[in-house]
């Protein structure tokens, strides 16, 4: 395996986009309709669901954590919206409020991880369970287990603005903003630093807890928003609507080249990961692969994607290993001469 | 007679040569002392013998036959047993499981016979007079001293051909040390080659028949202990100091800068008072682990402390590294790789990560141009080549890495700089550069608190030295009287009964 | 001998009562829930009824056991859901469709579980994948395999299996016997040399290696065993429901993780055990049983389980931090 230099130009991001492009070309060669405007728009909408779900996941993973509450926050986004809209709240206000509450739920995750030192997997699992319980307690799902969605969400997910669906525009703007946040802002630097080495970050004067809180809060907000547009697209919402996105959000992050250990990766990589996963699932039926085959290929692609972008991780691991066998052990007794 | 022969052993980590062709001859039936300053290569040599680390070149023979090394199991199979300074026992397992790890009494189907296991463990402990230790306790719940004793018991479970005591007594009370050394003697009497690695000259004098001195990765002296006096051994360990390692200082300390009173860190450190003056280099000395780390961490806001402090005329809170840095107090932590550097990140980012607010525009974005300029200027000040700014800091040598950590601290423009052993594992040239930098800073009025494990450093770089023992300040060596000897006398003399205890 | 004359040394040697609070809390939790459930449903105090309740718990118990193994070596196994589904659908489709030798075919299902676990082991121990990523990938892939075997719920589970599960051994319901066998097997493993190695690897990989432990081999075997356990879980569900489902395994992934953590097995590895997870898994089953006995909505038991997880893990984190604070 080759050793990567410091990823100033993120090779992993580039290769994730390349992978996506190759898949797209293969699919188009196989069925020319694949590149049609309608199909591409469709793909972008699908990819945006993953993209938003994986947005917060990216920030959390970069800061050295993991968010398993994403699917339940997505369900929350849809169901709570429907609940409030049915109660007469204007659609736009309801969407804003849902996203805000999503952020607050994310803060709860952050408090558990940052202050109570609960392992992220466990904290977000428990909070996800509580959100699930809350949604169940609403009990407003209609007889088919589904509840309707306000028009604002439907239009966000289905209407077009110029050549692209509205939601794709929103995604583009958000991606640019998050890209700037990570690559150009002090906050982004802090996220990477915390993910790379929490203790170094702390001793360098970074408020680690605040960084963590912010990452989980953004994750909650992004997941809730993903739930809103997903519900808008589907036209109604139900409890399990977010379930596929636990896997998809993490897969997009790692296929996009981020290290699951934190400190390394980009949101543009995640965008490429989301597109790749979407193109992959759209093209496999063309090759007469069933859902079953799709899932197998999915799993293998993730492992391959990680394998390919592992050079960076390999380097990290080697560096860490070297750190543990520094020439002199860090705690060797030091007075070199005994009493004269 | 049994003979362990090491010849031409080489090992380097990156650009640092730790062993440069070390040789060693040790005989069975004797305890062979191995002396050397920090960084001389003792630990690396032992790690190679015990199979933890692989040598780059060289040979090791026992009774003329080459030893297969490179894996712990291979060394163990060859009869080499090591009592590690860093414990090798597993804290979650019980005492019995640890003592007989890999040699558990099993029944037909591989089922460990619990009672037999405990009985055997008890027998083993009884053989060493340690019946008081409960074999069912989790090892991690035992006191550190007992854990170290169990390391010895485990190493001597079967009769070794070579027994290595790697700083095995450094964390022990005088009584326990004597016990460990007694076990070493017994092993020697049974014919084993016993290597005693220690930093205590007196221990070698009292227990070892022969001694080899390492310096800078080479063996520089090998004699029967009786034929060398202390001065000779110390001279061999220290070698001739590099000329002008320590620069001349211009100015003298001015008025008080940081005044600390009643500082305590938990029940481990303090209460203690100290005053740091502007332009002063204040040394902190003492044996290893007497609370120096906690003191520096507390001053830098990295661990909670109680007491009060004033920085110039304002109260100093030091509640977090963030606030400390904002107030002008920066810490260069002990372990540069785990506490100081983001190893995979480029040098430039490491330099600026401690001063992000300075490069942040009102909107939250970083002013990349200003950041790059500042990083380059800082690299110049600490002497890191500009073409390294973009490469990951892990690719740098230890000395350059340390310069980056220093650069990071200086970029925050501190008025108080806390240096924790900032020359450890650093080559001599870089050391001289760092000392020059320290002198320059002090001349500019920066107050510097410097803890070092190297006595000559304390004696030659500092304006005065405070000595710590068991968490308290036990004395001060003022500027006129600074010498390695004066510092050491305070360090070991202040705790007469437990002079050798470095808990 | 009067106590006054006992020399200090002797007194120190007296065995101090050692309570493992981790085990005590988990046991107490289970005991409390049992008492509550029994007081709500006196009819439960009957071995057949208990057998039925245990039968519903069997799949989770085995998946929790699998998850525990992975966590003990400082890992995680998300693929238990996939392995579970493959075993479940294999049982419902192939074993059910075949005439004759069901036992042998069930054995084949177990071997398949072992093999899938071994693949995880190779990815993690051999190729150096992060456990989370490796098993995330294989979870999906195995889930796809399950879909290939059985595209939608259905199939026919061999009667042999159902009748074994519903049968009794010496008057004791088979489900209880199966749990006893699981615990016994765990005990055998725990007390074997390999068992010690598992704990050593989870405790501190470097030190384990220093002591001559074949760290990679131990990891690989542990993941293989986890696959085996997850496969048994899938078979148990097929037997209990008499049908197969390609997605049946997924809910068990996070539930098993909950059970492991509630039970007190540390995510840092090296401490805990299958017995604890089994108790905790059974506690989770009891919570939903109690909720349904009290005619409470589903959400109550979901919330209770999540809160339980949160409370237990917070308490343990605080205790751990206090212990660390005492010996820094």
TrEMBL record, chain A:
One of its GO terms (molecular function) is transmembrane transporter activity. One of its GO terms (cellular component) is plasma membrane. Signal peptide: none annotated. Its main location: membrane. It is found in: Cell membrane. The chain crosses the membrane at residues 41-62, 92-115, 122-141, 161-182, 213-233, 245-263, 270-290, 296-317. The keyword Hydrolase does not apply. Keywords: Cell membrane, Membrane, Transmembrane, Transmembrane helix. It is a multi-pass membrane protein. PANTHER family: ABC TRANSPORTER PERMEASE PROTEIN YPHD-RELATED-RELATED, RIBOSE IMPORT PERMEASE PROTEIN RBSC. This is Ribose ABC transport system permease protein RbsC (TC 3.A.1.2.1). It comes from Patulibacter medicamentivorans.
TrEMBL record, chain B:
Keywords: ATP-binding, Nucleotide-binding, Repeat, Transport. It comes from the Bacteria. Transmembrane segments: none annotated. Residues 4-241, 240-495 form the ABC transporter domain. It comes from Patulibacter medicamentivorans. The keyword Oxidoreductase does not apply. This is Ribose ABC transport system ATP-binding protein RbsA (TC 3.A.1.2.1). GO terms for molecular function: ATP binding; ATP hydrolysis activity.
From TrEMBL, chain C:
GO terms for molecular function: transmembrane transporter activity. Signal peptide: none annotated. The chain crosses the membrane at residues 21-40, 52-73, 80-98, 104-125, 132-150, 170-189, 220-239, 251-267, 274-292, 298-319. It comes from the Bacteria. The keyword Manganese does not apply. Pfam families: BPD_transp_2. It is found in: Cell membrane. Keywords: Cell membrane, Membrane, Transmembrane, Transmembrane helix. GO terms for cellular component: plasma membrane. Its main location: membrane. The keyword Cell cycle does not apply. It is a multi-pass membrane protein. PANTHER family: ABC TRANSPORTER PERMEASE PROTEIN YPHD-RELATED-RELATED, RIBOSE IMPORT PERMEASE PROTEIN RBSC. This is Ribose ABC transport system permease protein RbsC (TC 3.A.1.2.1). The lineage of its organism: Bacteria, Bacillati, Actinomycetota, Thermoleophilia, Solirubrobacterales.
């Amino acid at each position: 395996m080759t050793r990567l230099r410091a990823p100033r130009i993120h090779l992993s991001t580039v290769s994730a986009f390349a992978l996506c492009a190759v898949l797209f070309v293969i699919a188009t060669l196989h069925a020319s309709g694949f590149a049609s405007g309608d199909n591409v728009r469709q793909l972008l909408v699908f990819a945006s669901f993953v993209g938003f779900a994986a947005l917060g996941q990216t920030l959390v993973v970069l800061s050295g954590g993991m968010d398993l509450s994403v699917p339940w926050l997505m369900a929350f986004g849809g169901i709570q919206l429907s609940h409030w809209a049915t109660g007469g709240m204007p659609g736009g206000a309801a969407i804003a409020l849902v996203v805000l509450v999503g952020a607050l739920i994310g803060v709860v995750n952050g408090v558990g991880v940052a202050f109570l030192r609960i392992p992220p997997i466990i904290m977000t699992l428990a909070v996800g369970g509580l959100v699930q319980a809350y949604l169940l307690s609403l009990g407003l799902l209609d007889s088919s287990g589904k509840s309707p969605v306000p028009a604002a969400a439907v239009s966000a997910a289905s209407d077009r603005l110029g050549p692209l669906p509205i939601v794709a525009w929103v995604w583009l703007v958000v991606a640019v903003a998050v890209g700037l946040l990570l690559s150009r802002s002090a906050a982004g630097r802090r996220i990477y630093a915390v993910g790379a080495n929490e203790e170094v970050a702390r001793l360098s004067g970074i408020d680690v807890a605040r960084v963590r809180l912010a990452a989980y809060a953004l994750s909650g907000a992004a997941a809730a928003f993903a739930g809103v547009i997903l519900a808008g697209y589907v036209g109604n919402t139900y409890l399990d609507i977010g379930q596929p996105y636990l896997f998809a959000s993490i897969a997009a992050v790692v296929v996009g080249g981020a290290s699951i250990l934190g400190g390394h990766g980009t949101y543009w990589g995640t965008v490429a990961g989301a597109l790749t996963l979407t193109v992959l699932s759209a093209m496999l039926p063309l090759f007469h692969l069933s859902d079953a085959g799709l899932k197998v290929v999915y799993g293998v692609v993730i492992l391959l994607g990680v394998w390919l972008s592992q050079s960076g991780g390999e380097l990290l691991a080697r560096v860490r290993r070297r750190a543990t066998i520094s020439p002199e052990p860090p705690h060797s007794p030091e007075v070199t001469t005994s009493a004269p | 007679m049994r003979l362990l022969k090491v010849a031409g052993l080489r090992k380097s980590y990156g650009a640092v040569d730790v062993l440069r062709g070390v040789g060693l001859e040790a005989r069975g039936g004797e305890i062979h002392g191995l002396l050397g300053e920090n960084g001389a290569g003792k630990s690396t040599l032992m790690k190679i013998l015990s199979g933890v680390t692989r040598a780059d070149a060289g040979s090791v023979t026992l009774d003329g036959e080459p030893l297969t090394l490179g894996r712990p199991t291979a060394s163990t199979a060859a009869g080499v047993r090591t009592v590690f300074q860093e414990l090798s026992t597993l804290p979650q397992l019980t005492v019995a499981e640890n003592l007989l790890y890999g040699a558990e009494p099993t029944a037909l189907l591989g089922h460990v016979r619990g009672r037999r296991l405990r009985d055997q463990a008890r027998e083993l402990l009884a053989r060493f007079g340690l019946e008081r230790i409960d074999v069912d306790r989790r090892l991690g719940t035992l006191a550190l001293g007992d854990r170290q004793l169990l390391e010895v018991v485990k190493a001597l479970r079967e009769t070794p051909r070579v027994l290595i005591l790697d700083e095995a007594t450094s964390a022990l009370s005088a009584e326990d040390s004597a016990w460990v050394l007694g076990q070493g003697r017994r092993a020697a009497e049974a014919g084993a080659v016993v290597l005693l690695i220690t930093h205590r000259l007196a221990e070698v004098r009292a227990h070892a028949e022969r001694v080899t001195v390492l310096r800078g990765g080479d063996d520089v002296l090998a004699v029967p202990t009786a034929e060398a006096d202390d001065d000779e051994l110390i001279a061999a360990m220290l070698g001739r100091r590099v000329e002008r390692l320590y620069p001349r200082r211009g100015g003298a300390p001015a008025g008080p800068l940081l005044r600390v009173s009643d500082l305590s860190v938990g029940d481990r450190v303090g209460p203690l008072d100290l005053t740091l003056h502007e332009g002063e280099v204040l040394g902190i000395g003492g044996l290893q682990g007497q609370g120096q780390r906690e003191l520096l961490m507390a001053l830098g806001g990295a661990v909670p402390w109680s007491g009060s402090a004033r920085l110039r005329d304002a109260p100093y809170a030091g509640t977090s590294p963030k606030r400390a840095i904002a107030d002008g107090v920066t810490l260069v932590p002990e372990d540069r790789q785990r506490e100081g550097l983001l190893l995979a990140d480029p040098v430039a980012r490491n330099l600026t990560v401690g001063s992000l607010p300075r490069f942040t525009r009102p909107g939250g974005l970083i002013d990349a141009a200003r950041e790059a300029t500042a990083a380059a200027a800082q690299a110049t000040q600490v002497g890191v080549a500009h073409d390294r700014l973009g490469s990951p800091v892990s690719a740098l040598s230890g000395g350059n890495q340390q310069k980056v950590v220093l650069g990071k601290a200086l970029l925050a423009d501190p008025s108080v700089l806390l240096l924790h052993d900032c020359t450890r594992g650093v080559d001599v040239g870089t050391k001289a550069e760092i000392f020059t930098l320290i002198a320059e800073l002090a001349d500019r009025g920066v107050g510097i608190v410097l803890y070092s494990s190297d006595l000559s450093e304390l004696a030659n770089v500092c304006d005065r030295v405070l000595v710590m023992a068991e968490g308290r300040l036990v004395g001060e060596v003022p500027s006129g009287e600074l010498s390695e000897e004066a510092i050491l006398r305070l360090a070991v003399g202040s705790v007469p009964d437990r002079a050798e205890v470095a808990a | 001998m009067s106590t006054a004359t006992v020399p200090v040394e002797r007194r120190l040697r007296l065995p101090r009562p050692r309570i493992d609070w981790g085990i005590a809390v988990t046991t107490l939790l289970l005991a409390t829930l049992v008492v509550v459930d029994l007081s709500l449903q006196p009819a439960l105090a009957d071995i057949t009824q208990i057998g039925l309740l245990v039968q519903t718990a069997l799949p989770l118990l085995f998946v929790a056991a699998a998850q525990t193994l992975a966590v003990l070596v400082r890992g995680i196994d998300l693929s238990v859901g996939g392995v579970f589904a493959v075993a479940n659908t294999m049982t419902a489709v192939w074993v059910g469709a075949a005439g004759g030798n069901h036992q042998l075919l069930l054995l084949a299902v177990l071997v398949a579980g072992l093999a899938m676990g071994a693949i995880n082991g190779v990815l993690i121990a051999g190729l150096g994948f992060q456990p989370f990523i490796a098993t995330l990938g294989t979870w999906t892939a195995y889930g796809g395999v399950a879909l290939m075997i059985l595209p939608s719920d259905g199939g026919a589970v061999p009667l042999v299996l159902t009748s074994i599960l519903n049968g009794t051994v010496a008057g004791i319901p088979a489900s209880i016997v199966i749990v006893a066998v699981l615990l016994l097997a765990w005990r055998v493993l725990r007390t074997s040399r390999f068992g010690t190695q598992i704990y050593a690897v989870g405790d501190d990989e470097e030190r384990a290696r220093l002591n001559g432990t074949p760290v990679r081999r131990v990891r690989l075997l542990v993941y293989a065993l986890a696959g085996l356990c997850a496969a048994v879980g899938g078979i148990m569900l097929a037997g209990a429901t008499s049908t197969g489902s390609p997605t049946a395994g997924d809910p068990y992934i996070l539930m098993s993780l909950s059970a492991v953590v509630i039970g007190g097995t540390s995510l840092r590895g090296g401490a805990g055990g299958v017995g604890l997870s089994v108790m905790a898994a059974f506690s989770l089953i009891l919570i939903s049983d109690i909720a349904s006995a009290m005619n409470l909505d589903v959400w109550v038991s979901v919330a209770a389980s999540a809160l339980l997880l949160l409370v237990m893990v917070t308490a343990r984190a605080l205790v751990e931090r206090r212990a660390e604070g005492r010996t820094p």
